[in-house]
């Protein structure tokens, strides 16, 4: 098995290209900077953006992972509790506090990402086998709910 | 000859039409007819009309009218009328189609349906005009400049065009030709083609006269060959040459420079789509900037041969001269050149003394910051943060060399020196296929700066704008720069491995260049990828040269690439997709299934391969790109895909394909450079060590060679055509995305459904575009754009007149004479910026509160709209005068916001109060009034203040007035009177309560207030509410009476009612619905105002009392709970506009309904 990790382009003007980049993703990793509350606050919009652009079949259960990065720094501004609460409210998104610089928790985070992505992929394949049967019932309702958020 | 003819024509025209306004009588009458048929406003300019058929079951013969904002069709055959009217901005695709059902037709599609037109007399011309107009509309959608007539242009090109052509068409043609002329010769923006003439150019290097065309504009004289002479055989023929059938036409050489008339649109001998007709091109081209010309003169020598007849000699200041012969209409050409030369010397002389040149030149390029080049204004900070212009970084940070690479460099330099000797040097060099061949080999590093400036045309602007860059950079260093944070973040990500960008020299220069550009062009600001392009250029060029190269790339070579939506790059993705499908059809289906195409071109094109290849290799692509334009990017992209064809076929998913391509590009080497220094910025797939071992490794010169030999037939004009097509698609997709995200933002407010918001949005957008396209509303000033991209919902703003229209259509408060006041106050309430504009979110809030909120919320809004500061003293005092002036008056209120009275809330507090309540009522739908009231009471924030008698009377007057037009409902007046009475009594109770406590006597005031009231209503005050209804209905029957009597009559009548009927009702009312004990009354005590007649200072009612009283009357409850049908209302608004102004988009015209639907 091999995984590909795609980083989205930086500036907002590139966001319109998201569709191509998000398409077919098995897991979405949202990373914020624990020293910058703004990056935490924008997690919501990034999650929405992803769900809208990628439009996964089951948005409520699409695997996300949230990483609070730069925990090696002293000037921490987002309390762990707040982040955990947010993740909890979004259908139990796994949350890790990491430091890319010090390699803290990176391994664990990517283990989870890979595991969840794998689970998602097998689910998608299941969907692909019976595309028509699934679409009839619960699925469409779920989609509508996601649009409202 | 043309010049003679045209000149004569124009002379004749001038004489025959002394009041010449550029149009023939026939066209004028057509315009008249067009306006009549489609009810078009005078602002809508007709460009041209064509005979054709519209397919609706059967072909219907008629006329296609192309105007600036619409495509319209009209047919009237056998009593059946067919009208089609499409807004350009709604068109998503234009295609030539030739199906069995619709033979040889033009297909126009909107989001809703497709329209087929055929049997054109001038299909090509029609198609091109349609395409051009649609693209102008797309630019308008992207908030670039809309269309405005350029009288100068009309007159210019009209010299060459039959006067039968309508003026606007000539303008558009001229525009297209000037654009082609500029892009062909890489001239600065704003250069307008003045005229052209056939002639020969003496090429001293091979001692021949070459046939071609001379182009003249205000600052340049250009020549390009389009000769019938035998083509010279290229000095070196490709061994790898593989002849390839291509739709771009056959060409004998594998290298086909663009200079040679690829843009076909210029010469009449080469019609615009003349890709296949161009026999020989690229023999030679020449660009002569007039600023370097010392003299242009006749060069007649007695007894000269035919080759030298009608000769013209242009001498340069640097003792160079160019000889043109057999110039058609030479004397006129000479006259024009002399004229331009004279103008130029004037302006340069002027600029030397008072420095106007920069202003005059910059004013052409729309929206760019003009720099006052007066050094005195440089600012006091200039000495504080002093900096030097950075010379090319490669001298300070030289790349490592080996004897072998140094030898190669020297050899190349030698070849160029030789080329200079033969063909000249600088802007005025003869550009031949030999030049192109040399460029393909890679320009030696030492000559890059010079040649890049020459080939890209950046040199012209640098020469004509001395000091411009230094000024901008200076300003950037001391002032605020849009996107400064983003620039700062990327400084260390641009060629981070190059030592030059690990030192302050490189970083500082990069910062200055990027900041200066962001200041120059706020439309672009800073876009990632510019940092990479700029950093590579800084290695080879000086700081100032880099800046001007960046200008050339961002504004001319890669148009729209870096703007806020990267439209240009998206468009070119589509173009590349088309090219792949033609050139590499097998691969196309594979790539399409993988979905890679839309991903690859972005970083390739945005950074001109600099970010995906080692930069020393990519810089050779840059050489070709600056010489040849965008087509280089496409050719190299195709070559890269072609080279990886087999590997790509085996890929299973998009990621794998991307990895293959990354790996390949990472491994592109440059034999001129010994050690690899740089590293890809976007994709880092492999370390340099790995690269060495890779068998796929290819030298960049080989790659470029492959690109040019296999795909060299691709011309810039072909790309330009494809871009026209894809721009429509890209921009309409962006529009859809924008609308959806806008609706998503606003939908969260839950007042309206998605569909309703969509309708509302489309209506607002259409209104906006109508205003824009007719030029009534000025285009937004790009320099005023905020740094950050505004939220989607802020894109289209609603001004008061538009809100007024919506209010009247949507709200049931819009009856009566006071409605405009309510509308203006409501608008003022929501307009948080105070700019007289609402964004979509504010609008939906306001309309939601007005039409969708529950009873308590709506009553609260109504109540608040009658409180200061919204209701100011002036408004209450002024009698209702002329209603037509209300709108303008209302606008004045926004400017003259009176200071809020001490006891009242500020506008923002009021707004918050209402919105907070709106939120609550939305979550608890169907809230009963009690919960609404108690909720409001429990609130922590500011409370809704009490209302004094004067305000109350005013409010009640408004309420009466709302129903004055509904004759059928006397009961409602009864209800209003009843509630009014009740509230007046409640106010009295409060007053008495207070009076007892404060022991103050204001009975006199109360008496004086009631006395005239009784007399006014003396006729039958005892009949109570019924008379109130009659009295209120009275002004409606005699409208003139309203302004004068309405005020006193109605309010005092209410008072009279309270006096007369109060006693008997008070007991039952208070038992029925005791007014809640209100702590607010105590507050009121402190905030007593000086008593003023006839109102009562102590008199007060609270919101809670108001709400509680209103709910006793079911009719009022029904009125304040009514939900209006937004969809129907907006629909009718859109159709009204159609009839009024014909701004239809989707074919819902009543006329069309019979014919089309």
UniProtKB/TrEMBL annotation, chain A:
Keyword Nucleotide-binding listed: yes
UniProt KW keywords: GTP-binding, Nucleotide-binding
PROSITE patterns: RAB, RAS
Gene Ontology CC terms, in alphabetical order: late endosome; lysosome; phagocytic vesicle
SMART domains named among the record's database cross-references: RAB, RAS, RHO
Alphabetical GO biological process terms: endosome to lysosome transport; phagosome-lysosome fusion
InterPro entries, A to Z: P-loop_NTPase, Small_GTP-bd, Small_GTPase
A GO term, aspect molecular function: GTP binding
NCBIfam families membership: small_GTP
PANTHER family per UniProt: RAB FAMILY (PTHR47981), RAS-RELATED PROTEIN RAB-7A (PTHR47981:SF20)
Protein family membership: Belongs to the small GTPase superfamily. Rab family.
Protein name: Ras-related protein Rab-7a
UniProtKB/TrEMBL annotation, chain B:
Superkingdom of origin: Eukaryota
The Rab-GAP TBC domain, residue ranges: 442-629
Keyword Mitochondrion: no
One MF term in the entry's GO annotations: GTPase activator activity
Chain intervals with Low complexity compositional bias: 1004-1033
Keyword Repeat belongs to the record: yes
Name of this chain's protein: TBC1 domain family member 9
Organism: Amphibalanus amphitrite (Striped barnacle)
């Amino acid at each position: 098995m091999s995984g590909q990790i795609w980083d989205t382009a930086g500036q907002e003007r590139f966001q319109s290209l998201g569709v191509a980049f998000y398409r077919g993703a098995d897991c979405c990793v949202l990373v914020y900077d624990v020293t910058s509350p703004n990056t935490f606050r924008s997690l919501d919009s990034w999650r929405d953006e992803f769900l809208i652009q990628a439009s996964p079949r089951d948005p409520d259960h699409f695997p996300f992972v949230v990483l609070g990065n730069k925990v090696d720094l002293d000037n921490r501004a987002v309390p762990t509790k707040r982040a955990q609460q947010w993740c909890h409210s979004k259908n139990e998104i796994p949350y890790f506090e990491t430091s890319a610089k010090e390699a803290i928790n990176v391994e664990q985070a990517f283990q989870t990402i890979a595991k969840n992505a794998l689970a998602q992929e097998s689910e998608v394949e299941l969907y692909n086998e019976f595309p028509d049967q699934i679409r009839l019932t619960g699925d469409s309702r779920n989609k509508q709910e996601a649009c409202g958020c | 000859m043309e010049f003679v003819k045209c000149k004569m024509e124009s002379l004749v025209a001038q004489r025959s039409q002394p009041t010449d306004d550029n149009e023939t009588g026939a066209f004028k009458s057509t315009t008249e007819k067009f306006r009549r048929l489609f009810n078009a406003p005078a602002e809508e300019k007709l460009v041209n009309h064509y005979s054709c058929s519209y397919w609706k079951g059967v072909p219907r013969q008629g006329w296609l009218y192309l105007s600036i904002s619409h495509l319209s069709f009209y047919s009237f055959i056998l009593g059946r009328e067919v009208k089609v009217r499409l807004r350009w901005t709604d068109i998503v695709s234009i295609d030539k189609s030739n199906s069995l059902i619709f033979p040889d037709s033009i297909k126009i599609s909107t989001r809703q349906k497709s329209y087929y037109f055929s049997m054109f007399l001038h299909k090509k011309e029609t198609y091109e005009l349609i395409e051009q107009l649609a693209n102008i509309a797309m630019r308008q959608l992207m908030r670039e400049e809309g269309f405005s007539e350029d009288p100068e242009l009309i007159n210019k090109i009209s010299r060459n065009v039959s006067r039968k052509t309508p003026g606007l068409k000539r303008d558009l043609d001229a525009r297209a030709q000037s654009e082609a002329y500029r892009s062909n010769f890489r001239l600065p923006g704003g250069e307008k083609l003045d005229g052209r003439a056939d002639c020969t150019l003496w090429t001293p290097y091979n001692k021949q006269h070459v046939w071609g065309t001379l182009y003249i504009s205000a600052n340049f004289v250009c020549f390009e060959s389009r000769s019938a002479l035998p083509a010279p055989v290229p000095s070196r023929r490709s061994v790898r040459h593989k002849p390839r059938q291509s739709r771009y036409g056959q060409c004998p050489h594998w290298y086909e420079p663009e200079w040679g008339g690829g843009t076909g649109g210029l010469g009449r001998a080469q019609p615009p789509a003349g890709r296949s007709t161009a026999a020989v091109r690229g023999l030679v081209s020449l660009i002569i900037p007039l600023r370097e010309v010392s003299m242009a003169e006749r060069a007649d020598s007695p007894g000269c041969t035919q080759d030298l007849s009608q000769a013209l000699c242009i001498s340069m200041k640097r003792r160079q001269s160019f000889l043109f012969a057999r110039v058609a209409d030479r004397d006129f050409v000479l006259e024009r050149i002399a004229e331009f030369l004279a103008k130029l010397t004037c302006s340069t002389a002027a600029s030397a003394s008072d420095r106007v040149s920069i202003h005059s030149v910059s004013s052409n390029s729309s929206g760019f910051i003009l720099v006052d080049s007066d050094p005195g204004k440089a600012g006091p900070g200039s000495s504080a943060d002093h900096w030097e212009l950075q010379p090319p970084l490669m001298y300070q940070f030289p790349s490592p060399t080996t004897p072998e690479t140094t030898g190669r460099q020297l050899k190349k330099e030698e070849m160029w020196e030789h080329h200079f000797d033969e063909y000249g040097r600088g802007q005025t060099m003869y550009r031949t296929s030999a030049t192109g061949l040399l460029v393909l080999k890679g320009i030696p590093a030492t000559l890059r700066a010079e040649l890049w400036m020459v080939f890209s045309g950046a040199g012209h602007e640098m020469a004509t704008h001395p000091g411009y860059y230094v000024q901008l950079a200076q300003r950037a260093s001391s002032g605020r720069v849009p996107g400064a944070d983003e620039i700062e973040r990327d400084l260390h990500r641009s060629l981070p491995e190059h030592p030059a960008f690990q030192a302050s020299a490189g970083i500082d220069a990069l910062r200055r260049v990027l900041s200066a550009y962001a200041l120059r062009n706020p439309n672009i600001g800073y876009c990632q990828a510019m940092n990479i392009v700029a950093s590579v250029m800084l290695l080879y060029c000086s700081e100032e040269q880099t800046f001007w190269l960046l200008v050339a790339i961002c504004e001319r070579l890669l148009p729209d690439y870096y703007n806020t939506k990267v439209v240009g790059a998206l468009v070119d993705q589509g173009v590349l997709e088309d090219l792949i499908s033609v050139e590499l059809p097998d691969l196309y289906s594979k790539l399409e299934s993988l979905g890679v195409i839309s991903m690859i071109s972005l970083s390739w094109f945005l950074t001109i391969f600099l970010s995906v290849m080692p930069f020393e290799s990519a810089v050779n692509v840059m050489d070709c790109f600056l010489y040849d334009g965008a087509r280089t990017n496409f050719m190299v992209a195709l070559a890269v895909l072609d080279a990886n064809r087999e590997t790509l076929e085996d890929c299973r998913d998009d990621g794998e394909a991307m990895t293959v391509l990354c790996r390949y590009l990472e491994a592109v080497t440059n034999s001129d450079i010994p050690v690899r220094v740089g590293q890809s910025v976007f994709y880092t797939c492999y370390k340099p060590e790995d690269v060495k071992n890779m068998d796929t490794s290819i030298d960049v010169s080989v790659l470029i060679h492959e690109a040019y030999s296999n795909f060299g037939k691709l011309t810039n004009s072909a790309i330009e055509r494809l871009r026209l097509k894809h721009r429509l698609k890209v921009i309409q997709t962006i529009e859809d995305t924008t609308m959806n995200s806008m609706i998503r933002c606003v939908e969260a407010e839950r007042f309206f459904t998605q569909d309703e918001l969509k309708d509302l949005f489309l209506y607002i957008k259409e209104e906006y575009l109508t205003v824009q396209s007719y030029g009534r509303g000025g285009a937004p000033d790009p320099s005023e754009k905020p740094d950050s991209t505004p939220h989607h919902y802020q894109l289209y703003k609603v001004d008061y007149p538009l809100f007024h229209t919506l209010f009247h259509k949507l709200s049931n408060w819009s009856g009566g004479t006071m409605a405009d006041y309510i509308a203006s106050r409501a608008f003022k309430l929501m307009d948080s910026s105070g700019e007289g504009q609402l964004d979509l979110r504010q609008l939906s809030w306001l309309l939601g509160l007005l039409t969708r909120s529950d009873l308590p919320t709506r009553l609260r809004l109504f109540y608040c709209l009658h409180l200061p500061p919204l209701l100011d003293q002036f408004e209450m005092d002024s009698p209702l005068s002329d209603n037509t002036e209300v709108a303008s008056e209302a606008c004045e209120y926004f400017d003259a916001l009176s200071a809020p009275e001490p006891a009242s809330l500020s506008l923002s507090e009021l707004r918050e109060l209402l919105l907070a309540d709106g939120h609550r009522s939305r979550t608890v739908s169907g809230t009963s009034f009690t919960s609404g009231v108690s909720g409001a009471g429990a609130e922590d924030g500011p409370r809704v203040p009490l209302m004094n008698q004067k305000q109350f009377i005013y409010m009640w007057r408004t309420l009466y007035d709302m129903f004055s037009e509904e004759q059928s409902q006397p009961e409602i007046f009864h209800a209003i009177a009843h509630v009014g009475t009740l509230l007046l009594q409640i106010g009295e109770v409060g007053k008495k309560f207070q009076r007892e406590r404060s022991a103050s006597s204001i009975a006199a005031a109360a008496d004086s207030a009631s006395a005239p009231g009784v007399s006014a209503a003396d006729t039958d005050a005892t009949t109570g509410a019924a008379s109130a209804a009659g009295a209120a209905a009275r002004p409606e029957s005699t409208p003139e009476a309203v302004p004068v009597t309405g005020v006193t009559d109605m309010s005092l009548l209410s008072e009279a009612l309270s006096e007369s009927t109060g006693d008997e009702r008070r007991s039952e009312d208070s038992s029925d619905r005791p007014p809640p004990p209100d702590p607010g009354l105590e507050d009121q005590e402190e905030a007593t105002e000086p008593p003023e007649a006839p109102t009562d200072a102590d008199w007060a009612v609270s919101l809670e009392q108001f709400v509680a009283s209103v709910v006793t009357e079911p009719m009022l409850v029904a009125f304040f709970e009514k939900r209006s049908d937004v969809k129907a209302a907006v629909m009718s608004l859109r159709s009204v506009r159609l009839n009024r102004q014909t701004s239809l988009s989707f074919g819902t015209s009543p006329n069309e309904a019979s014919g089309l639907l």
